[in-house]
Amino acid sequence: MGMDIQRTGEAKKKRIRRIIWGIAGLVAILLVTVGLSRLEPAAPTVDKATVWVDTVQRGPMQREVRGPGTLVAEDIRFVPALVDARIERIPALPGVTVTKDTLLLEMSNPDLEQNAAEAESQVKAVQADYDDLKAKLDKELLNEQATAAQVESQSEQAKLQAEADVKLAKEGLIPEITMKKSTMQSTMLGQQASIEKQKVRQNALSAQAQLAAQRARVEQQQAVYGLKRRQVEALHVKAGIDGVLQELPVQVGQRVAPGANLARVAQPDKLKAELKIPETQAKDVVKGQSAQIDTRNGIVSGHVERVAPSVQDGTVTVDVKLDGPLPKGARVDLSVDGTILIERLDNVLYVGRPAYGQPNSKVQMFKLTEGGKGAVRIPVQLGRSSVNTIEIVGGLNVGDKVILSDTSAWDGHDRLRLN
Fold this sequence. Notes:
The protein is of the alpha+beta class. It folds into 4 domains: 45-60 and 347-418, CATH 2.40.420.20; 67-72 and 267-345, Beta Barrel (Elongation Factor Tu (Ef-tu), domain 3); 82-105 and 238-265, CATH 2.40.50.100; 110-233. It contains 3 helices and 21 strands. The chain has helices at 2-38, 110-170, 176-233; strands at 45-46, 53-55, 57-73, 76-80, 85-89, 97-98, 103-108, 236-238, 243-247, 255-256, 261-266, 271-278, 290-294, 299-307, 315-322, 335-352, 362-369, 374-385, 389-394, 401-403, 415-418. Strands 3-12-15-14-13-16 form a 6-stranded antiparallel β-barrel. Strands 4-11-9-6 form a 4-stranded antiparallel β-sheet, with no helix packed on it. A hairpin with a 4-residue loop joins strand 17 and strand 18 (374-385). Helix 2 packs antiparallel against helix 3. The mean pLDDT is 89.
């Protein structure tokens, strides 16, 4: 009986010890787990040669924007079709130098040629009618003038006779009745002469009015003929300006409608750069700002001449007028790069532009520590930006070295080891 009680007590003590050890083990595991969770992850090791490091500086900084573009001619003439016609011959090909009178295309339209011939015949007909009417009116006017002159002569003779008869009658040499007859004859012929003169003036005015009406018909028909003739002349397409024929998008036998583009002629010695600036950078670009155009064979100075009012495909078109001479090999449609100077900033804190972060924003950057053997993540306030540099508003000081390359691979780490 004593032995059973002793065994039972020993078994109970063993169970208690196992429970205690189990609880202690669980507590230990929990403490280790909590401790491990509070430990920072080990700083990754990064090859210093694979990252882009720059030093913060203080001094003047130029704000610039950059964009690709092409050289285009300042003076471009698009040659349109003025009439409906068919292409018969193409004597000039793209790339050749042309003058304003160089023949680019020969076209045909039989209807236009026939209309011009008919209009020319009508001009000749109405001109003949005008000449005939003028001759007729001139003859009538001459007859009127001759009659008036004759009556005027008779009136003068009658007047002289009446004056003589008045004297003779006073002296009693002729009867008074004879004097009265001659006086009456003089008065009547004088009135008739006045009427004839008035008729000459009226007929002259009438002739002028008739000739003016006929002349208007002649001029109207000449205008119609001029239009038809210009339409025929438009079948011979000329360059219009001195330059280089850039484009001729038509073929022999092709039918073209009025307004269709037949050719493009440009003056190659007067070029400008047409840049495509990203819309996020174009907001500060204004007319008159200086620019540098890299033609891959030399850099030409220029200034902003025009900023497009709208955005296309995420870019704004900026025209830069070239101030300096063009380098050798510069030609229309040549690809170029342009840099526009926005402003010059004096005595600002700046560093190379990082691969991440936008102007006037707050970012996280890795600053080098321990003599360049490590890097720690710090908040940095960015300011105004340029093509290759950006202003530092806060978080860094002169001489600090920071990583500018993409650090998204280490987003989960606040420290780096550099070797």
